[in-house]
Amino acid sequence: MNLLFIGDIFGSAGRRIVREHIGHIRQAHDVELVIINAENAAGGFGLTPQIAEDLFDLGADVLTTGNHVWDKRELIDYMNSVPADSQQRPRRVLRPANLQPGLPGYGVFEGSTDSGVDYAVVDLQGCVFMNTTNDPFHAANRLLEGIKAKVIVVDFHAEATSEKVAMGWHLDGRVTAVLGTHTHIPTADERVLPGGTAYQTDIGMSGPYDSVIGVEKDLVLKKFISGMPSKFEAAKGNPKMCAALIACDPSTGHALRIQRIMLGE
Ligand SMILES: [Fe+2]
Questions:
Q1: Which DSSP symbol is given to 105?
Q2: Which strand (E) or helix (H) includes residue 78?
Q3: How far apart, in Å, are the Cα atoms of 63 and each of 13, 66, 185, 196?
Q4: Which residues surround ligand 1, an ion (CB under 5 A)?
Q5: Which DSSP letter does residue 88 get?
Q6: pLDDT in tens, 178-237
Q7: CA 135–ligand 1 middle distance (angstroms)
Q8: Distance (Å, rounded) from C-alpha 98 to C-alpha 228?
Q9: Cα torsion through 187, 188, 193, 198, rounded to 10
Q10: Number of other CB atoms surrounding residue 166 within 10 Å
């Protein structure tokens, strides 16, 4: 079984490049499950219900997020519009599972592919150099106890490479894939760990690469050079789609291969 994980969509350039490539990748590799991190899809900040619907129309099964999940307040109403046990689209938009208790939304989605393979997607956020969250390592242990599916994909939305590598080892053999997001820079360390977990420290952004991690480069340079605050805007130039294609055995959930993808216009 092949699954596709698309890295953080950034702004309209990111949405456009994903629209250009998602169809032929899905078809060429007979992809059964598509997961997209979409937390920067709305102009670089958050996700709107309309953009979520557009991504589902393109073939996404589950959308993950991270520290920008609450940037667009209307997403909260969208998430709350269906009950916890729903399989409908609003329930397929995840926020990190290890945020403070009682917040809207969910950090895990469990579903089945068209061919009947049960799967789970888990969204976790790192603690190092990030806003306050609960410990993602213990949170992962607790969440896995409640998941019956063999195919489990973890989006670990985190800043520090060390924390992400550690999570890979922590979950090796217990999940199908641990895939890093958030830094918007793809790393070249994709591999299948000895226990059968596909791992990559960061999938990289799907967005404009003539930028500073998605933002118009002149605005970021001005801030670094002058120290003065500046309003950030999403860049447009040189869009690329970054993703990982993972082959796994649906009967065990173990990964067989992981391939890093970066596609331009
Ligand atoms: Fe992020």
A1: S
A2: helix 74-79
A3: 18, 11, 19, 24
A4: 66-67, 182
A5: S
A6: 999 999 999 999 999 999 999 999 999 999 999 999 999 999 999 999 999 888 999 999
A7: 17
A8: 34
A9: 70
A10: 17
